[in-house]
Amino acid sequence: MNPNTLSSDADLKRLARKRVKARLGWLIHATVYVCVITGLTLLGLSQGKAWPIFPALGWGFGLLMHGLAVFVVGAGGALREEWVEREHRRLVRQRTGTPS
Q1: Do the beta carbons of residue 61 and residue 7 sit within 8 Å?
Q2: 51 by DSSP, 3-state: which?
Q3: Which of 12, 39, 77, 92 has the most crowded CB, counting CB atoms within 10 A?
Q4: pLDDT tens across 59-77, in order?
Q5: What are the structural domain ranges in the chain?
Q6: Other CB atoms closer than 10 Å to residue 52's CB: what's the count?
Q7: By CB neighbour count within 10 A (0-12 exposed, 13-18 middle, 19+ buried), where does 47 fall?
């Protein structure tokens, strides 16, 4: 949803809620990640082992993908908004018969 094309304040409020919900979801995910990985690291250090690196890397990759989905291509992401605008302009040109 492009905020420039929304017709009412209620639509803008709905879009804002959707974006904030996605960002808060990522923030909660990141907080849980830091807490759990810190605990696992302390446990690993007490055992003299380096095994916590494996869950940190695996989960870290998942957190990265979640962040990309939220901040880059998801609702309100800059890349997604750019693509929507580009496609909208293409469709308008197509409808009016204006060459690309």
Answers
A1: no
A2: coil
A3: 77
A4: 999 999 999 988 888 766 7
A5: 9-96
A6: 19
A7: exposed
On whether the CB atoms of residues 88 and 2 are closer than 8 A, the answer is yes
Q: Where are the alpha helices (DSSP H) in the chain?
A: 9-47, 53-68, 78-96
Q: Taking CA 38 as the corner, what is the angle to CA 33 and CA 41, rounded to the nearest 5 degrees?
A: 120
pLDDT at 15: 82
Task: Dig out the tokens for 86 from the structure.
Answer: 């580009």
Rg (alpha carbons) of the chain, rounded to whole number: 21
Q: For residues 25 and 20, what is the distance between their CA atoms, to the nearest angstrom?
A: 8
Whole-number Cα distances in Å, 60 to 5, 16, 18, 93: 36, 27, 24, 43
Pairwise CA distance, residues 57 & 63, whole Å: 10
Burial bucket for residue 70 (CB in 10 Å: 0-12, 13-18, 19+): buried
